[in-house]
Specification:
The complex is a heterodimer of chains A (338) and B (178). By secondary structure, chain A is mainly α. Chain A has twelve helices and no strands. In chain B, a hairpin with a 5-residue loop joins strand 2 and strand 3. The chains are: A mainly alpha (338), B alpha+beta (178).
């Protein structure tokens, strides 16, 4: 009796609980990302005066299952001309980097895999930079022109947008005084950072769209120009991994925008009812997801050089100015108090 | 700077415009539940019509088969006891047909006509080959009162030469009398 109880030490229980949380979040994330395929098609259809998938199951909800069944049973063909190990590695990199960053996000009070990681924002930036390897390696190892051009564009796009992505977040970090995401959420108790950090918000959302390769910054996979860009040569579940990774990226970036600028899970009564915190978080995240889809429905794709020019000539100076002004303001305030 | 602001404004404006489409009526017709309106001259399933007397209109002239760009019509002429021509068999292979309507335009007796019906899907390709019994309908189609043998000069049993509508008796060239 004592032996069996001594097996469940508090440490072990904590580890098991953390593992369960991680698995729940992981599964939930993948399912949400898959459902986004349906959400996106329905919303795009709504804004284009169509219906979208509405045949399979209620409201077409089972379309996702049908697509999944299809993609699992498709022939997973590796072309003979590719660099095989790298070709196989690339979709895994896409999926892993997209999902790993989600461990930072506090989805509800006290819920999350590691929201108390003290290098939170930095880890996200690091993973976002690693995400470029998926596109780059996929495009390079495919040994085909379209894929290479797509990988090339992805690399250039990442280079120009990673830079001010980090800088845009520094304003939030300065104001919260911490890289830790649950501290950042706690710092927005009275005022969401979207108000004092409006330019930081704008810059970060631009960079976030660019890192997920979504419209209007989907140049790496511009269908009209590059067939499918860096994943032209992929088929079956490997393509599916790129595809789902893109939607995981959308969820991740929306969740981060929520956490960093819209107060995360904070909202009326969220302190008293923890589950309500999750509802607020989910609603805010879905709001950003919707904006992402609306962007896709509304905007044209800029030219390659226009996109880079926007990054370097407009967003980078603006986010630098934002950091300077924020730092000056914070310094002035603390100097006054000290 | 002004250009940048203008660009931001124009992008936001198009986003609002697209979002406002959420309240518009959708253009899609939910097909199997709601049937679309097809005008009477729609070029769908091909039929063989009958004249107002209920006889087959087709005189097996083969003009439709000649006009058909994909050669999906085949027929064989035969003759009835009373002198009428009619097709012994008339076969349209709808797996080849492109519904161009040239057969309808070529037909001198308005026998072959296209109808506003497109729901001809089959699981077995061979079922798309329509024989005469599948094509022939019990009506006049789009031309209600045309009867070829009643206006044509061809003599058949019960209608000697000169008795067709608007047709004069043949001139007797061997007499001078009016």
């Amino acid at each position: 009796m004592t032996e069996s109880t001594s097996l469940w030490t508090p440490e072990l229980i904590a580890v098991v609980m953390a593992a369960v949380k991680a698995i729940v979040l992981l599964l939930g994330l993948v399912i949400v990302a898959a459902m986004l395929i349906w959400v996106e098609r329905r919303l795009l259809a709504l804004w284009q005066d169509r219906y979208g998938p509405n045949r399979v199951g209620p409201f077409g909800l089972l379309q996702v299952s049908a697509d999944m069944i299809k993609i699992f049973f498709k022939e997973d063909w590796v072309p003979p001309f590719v660099d095989k190990p790298v070709f196989l590695l690339a979709p895994a990199v896409a999926m892993i980097t997209a999902m790993l960053a989600f461990l930072l996000v506090p989805v509800a009070p006290g819920w999350g895999v590691a929201p108390d990681l003290n290098i939170g924002v930095l880890l996200f930036l690091a993973l976002a930079s690693l995400e470029v390897y998926a596109a780059m390696l996929g495009g390079w190892s495919s040994n085909s022109k379209y894929a290479l051009l797509g990988g090339l564009r992805a690399t250039a796009q990442m280079l120009s947008y990673e830079v001010f992505m980090g800088i845009a977040l520094m304003g939030v970090v300065i104001q919260a005084g911490s890289f830790q995401l649950d501290h950042i959420v706690a710092a927005q108790r009275h005022l969401w950072f979207i108000i004092p950090q409006f330019f930081g918000f704008c810059m970060f959302s631009l960079a976030a769209i660019a890192t997920t390769h979504r419209f209007p910054f989907d140049l790496p996979e511009a269908e009209q120009e590059l067939t499918a860009g860096y994943h032209t040569e992929y088929s079956g579940m490997k393509f599916g991994m790129f595809f789902v990774a893109e939607y995981v990226g959308v969820v991740l970036v929306s969740a981060l925008l929520t956490t960093l600028f819209l107060g995360g899970w904070q909202g009326p009564f969220a302190d008293r009812l923890p589950w309500l915190g999750f509802v607020w978080f989910a609603l805010k995240t879905f709001f950003f997801v919707m904006i992402f889809i609306l962007l896709r429905g509304a905007l044209p794709r800029p030219r390659y050089d226009q996109m880079m020019a926007l990054g370097w000539k407009f967003c980078l100076p603006l986010s630098l100015a934002n950091v300077l002004v924020t730092a000056a303001a914070v310094l002035a305030n603390t100097a006054g108090t000290v | 700077m002004f250009d940048t602001l203008k660009a931001i404004y124009s992008n936001l404006r198009s986003m609002v415009m697209i979002f406002s489409h959420a309240t518009r009526k959708r253009d899609t017709i939910l097909y199997p539940e709601v049937k679309p309106y097809l005008p009477p001259r729609y070029r769908g399933r091909i039929v063989l019509t009958r004249d107002p007397d209920g006889q087959e209109r087709c005189v097996a002239c083969n003009l439709c088969a000649v006009a058909c760009p994909v050669a999906c019509i085949s027929l064989q002429k035969t003759q009835a006891e009373d002198g009428r021509w009619y097709p012994e068999f008339f076969r349209i292979n709808f797996s080849r047909c492109i519904f161009c309507g040239l057969c309808e335009e070529a037909c001198p007796t308005s026998a072959i006509q296209l109808t506003p019906d497109f729901e001809m899907g089959e699981y077995d390709r061979q079922n798309l080959v329509y024989e005469k019994e599948h094509l022939l309908i019990n009506g006049t189609g789009k031309v209600p009162d045309y009867n070829f043998y009643r206006v044509a000069g061809l003599a058949i049993a019960g209608k000697p030469i000169g008795t067709a509508a608007h047709e004069a008796r043949p001139v007797d060239v061997k007499t001078l009398l009016p």
